[in-house]
Specification:
Length: 412
């Protein structure tokens, strides 16, 4: 983190957001656009000042694919936005783009590389605000008075939304399709002197850590992790591949393949065109279902496996599958706990202050037992100081945050 903040390129990039946390007094109506997974979401948010806000409307649509041309990505998004704007007339758009970006200000940022197995051509190295504005402009003749007033990563968004609601919030966490943290850093800890002051409070800036790319996990990677990485289209992101929903099911599948290849279980799971052969057929939802199957002799898992093309499984194999699923889910929560503990103690070594981590994402929200395991992880690492760090779920946090960041940028 220190090197990232000094501008010395490391696996944890520490991308500046050019905004500070909000005061909680910002007011106004904003349209938040959240693009970071296959589900593209738009939320009309009213900030009411005094640390309260209201969601007026929420809509989403699914991208047909995560690969294609630049138009396959931005044209449907632009169409979606134009329809919403026409209905509402709101002109302040906060744009969450949940990928690593080199921002030069709060209104522009170049995608440094695709992550989460996304691959649309001609977007890397381009300014994503310009691409979106062009696509909107093509639909409205000119921009029709609409423009993007702020751009931010989703972790920056969830942090900003958390801080709007509670000033103790200084970290943002996403564990969904991808995994990442953002942190509000006091000015005196920022080694880079080439950055202009942030909008909002000049004494701090929010940074997108991009810690999914942390390469310090080498020592704890298993063969399955290494194989997943070697076969992935997304370069790097080794820590994310051990944490995030895009990958956890596949880690389990690769482990099953290893055990089957050694003849130590899962006989016939891979033969005769059955389900476990193809990459990513076992999803993170399947992992969740198997890990928390309460049925007698894991019959629910047997049925689920039948749906995936693997029938006639033994109870023993199903138990082994469940054990693998539980340990892969637990490991994800424990690595996230380590990331949070490291970040909190970097900011505040003795944890003299309270820290709130605002969290969002499908794995954090939806995987049974995940939040409790994360808490146990924090307790193991921080001991009795663990209660100084609270990790709190904030529904649609990144979308709400887009509105908050747009308000900080507009200084309203
Ligand atoms: C990936 C992206 C990162 C994002 C995270 C959560 O790690 O690179 O920018 O914050 O997913 O969506």
């Amino acid at each position: 983190m220190r090197r990232g903040l000094s501008g010395d390129p490391r696996s944890i990039a520490m991308h500046p957001s050019f905004v500070s946390r909000p005061t909680g007094c910002e007011e106004g109506r904003f349209l938040a656009l959240d693009l970071g997974g296959t589900n593209v979401r738009a939320t009309l948010v009213e900030l009411r000042g005094q640390r309260s806000l209201r969601v007026l409307e929420h809509q989403s649509f699914r991208l047909a694919s995560t690969t294609g041309t630049v138009h396959d990505l931005f044209d449907p998004v632009a169409e979606f936005v134009v329809d919403l704007l026409a209905d509402d007339g709101s002109q302040n758009i906060g744009f969450i783009f949940a990928f690593p970006m080199d921002q030069t200000g709060v209104r522009s940022g170049r995608l440094t590389k695709w992550t989460k197995e996304f691959a649309f051509d001609c977007v890397e190295e381009e300014d994503v605000v310009a691409l979106l504005e062009q696509a909107i402009g093509a639909r409205t003749g000119n921009l029709g008075g609409f423009g993007i007033s702020a751009l931010a990563n989703d972790t920056v968004g969830v942090l900003a939304a958390g801080a709007y609601l509670d000033p103790r919030c200084d970290m943002g966490l996403i564990v969904g399709t991808g995994a990442n943290l953002a942190v509000a850093v006091p000015d005196k800890m920022i080694g880079r002197r080439d950055l202009p002051g942030p909008l909002g409070n000049p004494d701090e800036m929010i940074f997108n850590m991009e810690c999914g790319n942390f390469d310090g996990v080498d020592a704890i990677q298993t063969d399955a992790d290494r194989r997943l990485d070697a076969e992935s289209d997304t370069i790097g992101q080794r820590m994310e591949k051990m944490i995030a929903g895009r990958y956890l099911g596949e880690v389990v599948r690769l482990r099953v393949c290893e055990i089957a290849a050694r003849g130590e279980g899962f006989d016939d799971w891979l033969t005769g065109g059955r389900g476990f052969n193809a990459p990513y057929t076992f999803t993170t939802e399947d992992l969740s279902d198997a890990a928390f199957d309460e049925s007698e002799e894991l019959i629910a898992t047997a049925m689920q496996l039948g749906r995936l093309g693997v029938s006639d499984t033994t109870v023993g194999d199903r138990r082994l599958l469940r054990e693998i699923c539980i340990s892969v889910a637990r490991r994800s929560a424990r690595i996230v706990a380590a990331g949070i503990a490291a970040t909190a103690t970097y900011l505040d070594p003795d944890l003299d202050d309270e820290h709130i981590v605002a969290a969002d994402g499908s794995v954090f929200r939806g995987m049974p037992g995940y939040q409790a395991e994360l808490r146990r992880g924090l307790q193991d690492i921080l001991g009795e100081r663990a209660d100084r760090v609270q990790v709190c779920y904030l529904r649609d946090g990144s979308g709400l945050g887009a509105a908050v960041v747009a308000a900080v940028a507009a200084e309203v």
